[in-house]
Every structure is written in C-alpha cells, then in structure tokens.
Design a protein that fits this description.
The protein is an alpha/beta fold. The chain has two domains: 154 residues, Aspartate Aminotransferase, domain 1; 235 residues, Aspartate Aminotransferase, domain 2. Helices cover 39% and strands 12% of the residues. The protein contains 14 helices and twelve strands. The strands form three sheets. The chain has a seven-stranded mixed β-sheet with strand order 2-8-7-6-5-3-4, sandwiched between helices. A three-stranded antiparallel β-sheet has the order 9-12-11. α3 packs parallel to α11. The termini are far apart.
Length: 408
C-alpha cells in the first residue's frame, strides 16, 4: 500500500466518536447533532424534478467536460454573481462531483514532487486540504486563523523562503469553521504574491451563498481577478458547490473555474480518473444554477436561525459575529474543548465538534516559531453546525446554555 497513507491523521468525526465512547446521555432527551456540515433544509425541489425527468439518461456515459449547457449555466451564474467580464465555458469551467472530490484530485494533479512542495492551508481547516497534500507527497504549511486577525491567516507573517516553496495556497472563504470572509483587497494582495513566488491560489468558496447581510455577499477570487483586469484568471482557481447553496449535498455537484492553463491539464487528469458527473445530475444542476429564488429563501432560513441561536448563547458564550456559512465558532468556558464536548453530550445529548480536531499546532508545519506559539488555534473552541431546522437547533442552543449555567 501507499506508505503516505500512514501520514493521514484520524478524521475529526472518528476522534469525536472515540471521545463520546462509553458516555450514556439522558434517555429522555432526543439526540441533537450540531457536528456535520450537512444541510438539513429541504433540497431544491425543481432540481429533483429535473433529475427524475432525465432518469433514462443514466443509460449513457457522461463526458469528463460535462455537457455544454451545464458549463454555460455555470459560466453565466459566475459572471452574474461575481461581476465578471466573462468566463469561457469551454476553457475556464469544469463540472465536478462536489468540491471535496475536486479539491483532493486537483492536488494530486498539480503538485510537483520533484521540488519542494509546500501547500499552505488555513488552520483550522477542512481536512481534505491536508489529506490531499500528504497523499500527493507534499508538506502542509498551516496558517493560523486567530481572533486577533479576524480569524483569517496572517499572510504578512509568512517568510519569503516559505512562499518560495509553496506550490498551492488554499483559501476558504467564507471560512470553515470560523465563518470569516476574505476581503477583496486581500485576494488582490495574494494574487500579487502568487505572481511573485509562482504558486497557485485554490479558493474553496462552497459557502459563498450563505451570508447574513443580503447587501454584502462575500467577494470571490475571480471577482478580485476581474477588478485587476486579469480576465485570464492566471494562477487562480475557484471551487463551488450546490451542496450548501441548494441543500443538495447528495447530488455531489460542483465546479472548478478559472485559469484555462490549469483547467486543461486537470481535465486530462480527470479523464483517466474516471469521475465524470452522470447526465441526470448535470441536468438537475443546470436547474439549480439557473434559479436564485430558492437560494434567497435558504439564506432567510439561516438568518432566522442565527438570530435565534445568537440571542440564546451570547450571554454564556463568546463567539465572533458570523458573516457567512452556517457555523458558530465559540470559545468554551474553561478552555478545554474536548472535556466540554464530552460533558455536554453526557448531560444534554447534544453533539458538537471540538475545535482542536480541526486544527494543528503550528509546529506541525515544520517551522520553528520564534514567538513560541505552537498551540493549536482550534483549542478551546467548538464548532456548531446550525444545519437542522429551526426548532431542534433552538432546542440545542437552550440545552447548551442550560449546561453552561449549571456549571457556572
């Protein structure tokens, strides 16, 4: 077997299961999980109707590049959403089976192992960034996302000698688990850094349509490129998905868009990888990308939920004001996120995810920190995924507050 498999760390939910092992929660309380970022709102009905209408197309092999109608729908949506001058559906768009699959595959295709191969990732982070890097023979370089920097990486603190070894920089905006949004000016600054040090920017924007201020949609990497007149999107790729936008995580539908010079070899890789999206899913995706009304309704539902939960928890927990995504990132009383998680499950039958399970100590990046800050930036926090419907989510918030007040 590939020896790099031994470098993979236990997945957060595997660690969570071990943490809760042997704990017996109260029988009279139904379990409320706030752990996995799987939307529980109703999936977009029109997309499911389209899927059913095209079910006979399961009898046909799909092409890696996807059908032209899907690429056009994606290009048109991206252009409208991010104010682009245009996006070539033939050369700058590639449909994929969700961002998770595409992110993992892209690192395998893009990383050059014949030279230093660092992949810079936000810390805490979505575990696929790390796993993909390790299995491609690269070295993750963790960029701490701390409160003093708005829960975004401090890119100015990265030495030039590190940037010279970085081949891919992963961004996640809105962030998982923090909900922090990357400003357009920061995207533009990173584009200049990529030009200076010759690395690829891979921007995971799968939460981009879940934002709380209807008048302030999160900017995107291609939007920053367009503002710079960089319409070839050189060195830049974005990853988008219907999972959160349209409550269709099981559809496994998303896209990669940007630099045609990166899309072409990635498409060649995917042809051998054998991961083309089935035709009924492509038609359903067209329906979803062409409709905004259901996305507005989805945002309204999350706004109502965030407002209700924040009102309940603000008196007992400190957390950054959420800008986007469907997560809260509170600090726990006492600072021990594992102990808090286990005790909460035992007392209130509510599951949350310890923040330390999503991060790594800075020392894991292979760099010696002169300031001695080798602490996992997720330690002392928990991630709350507000994905269920309003009633159980509010009930979970009341239980968390009750648990904290009893321990005070």
């Amino acid at each position: 077997m590939n020896p790099d498999l031994d470098a993979l760390k236990p997945y957060p939910f595997e660690k969570l299961a071990a943490l809760k092992a042997g704990v017996t929660p109260p029988e009279g309380l139904a379990h409320i999980p706030l752990t996995i970022g799987e939307p529980q709102h109703a999936p977009f009905a029109a997309a499911l109707e389209t899927l059913q209408a095209h079910q006979l197309d399961f009898a046909r092999y799909p092409a890696t590049a996807g059908i032209p109608e899907l690429r056009r729908a994606i290009a048109d949506w991206s252009t409208r959403r991010f104010g682009l001058a245009g996006l070539d559906p033939e050369r700058q768009v590639l449909p994929v089976n969700g961002t998770r699959e595409a992110i993992f595959a892209f690192v395998q295709a893009a990383l050059d192992r014949s030279r230093p191969a660092r992949v810079a990732v936000p810390n805490p982070f979505y575990q696929i960034y790390e796993g993909a890097t390790l299995l491609a023979g690269g070295q993750p370089h963790y960029l701490d996302c701390r409160a003093e920097n708005g829960f975004r990486p401090d890119f100015d603190a990265v030495p030039s000698e590190v940037w010279r070894e970085v081949q891919i920089l992963f961004l996640c905006s809105p962030g998982n688990p923090t909900g922090a949004v990357t400003p357009r000016a920061e995207f533009e600054k990173l584009i200049a850094l990529a030009d200076e040090h010759d690395f690829i920017i891979a921007s995971d924007e799968c939460y981009s349509e879940l934002y709380l201020d209807e008048n302030a949609p999160p900017p995107g990497l291609l939007e920053a490129c367009a503002a710079l007149g960089r319409h070839d999107y050189r060195r830049c790729l974005v990853f988008h998905s219907l999972s959160k936008r349209s409550n269709l995580p099981g559809l496994r539908s998303g896209f990669v868009a940007g630099d045609a010079g990166l899309i072409a070899p990635f498409k060649r890789y995917r042809t051998y990888h054998g991961c083309a999206m089935s035709l009924p899913l492509q038609y359903a995706s067209i329906t979803a990308w062409n409709d905004e009304a259901h996305v507005h309704a989805n945002r309204d539902a999350y706004r109502e939920k965030f407002a209700a939960v924040a009102e309940i928890l603000a008196p007992v927990l400190e957390f950054p004001a959420p800008e986007a995504s469907f997560y809260l990132w509170p600090a726990v009383p006492g600072g021990d996120d594992e102990a808090f998680t286990r005790a909460l499950f035992a007392a209130e039958h509510v599951s949350v995810l310890p923040g330390s399970y999503m991060g790594r100590p800075a020392a894991d990046s292979g760099m010696n920190r002169a300031d001695g800050r080798g602490v996992n930036p997720g330690t002392g926090r928990i991630r709350l995924a507000l994905v269920a419907e309003l009633e159980p989510t509010v009930e979970a918030a009341h239980r968390i507050r009750r648990f904290i007040e009893r321990r005070a």
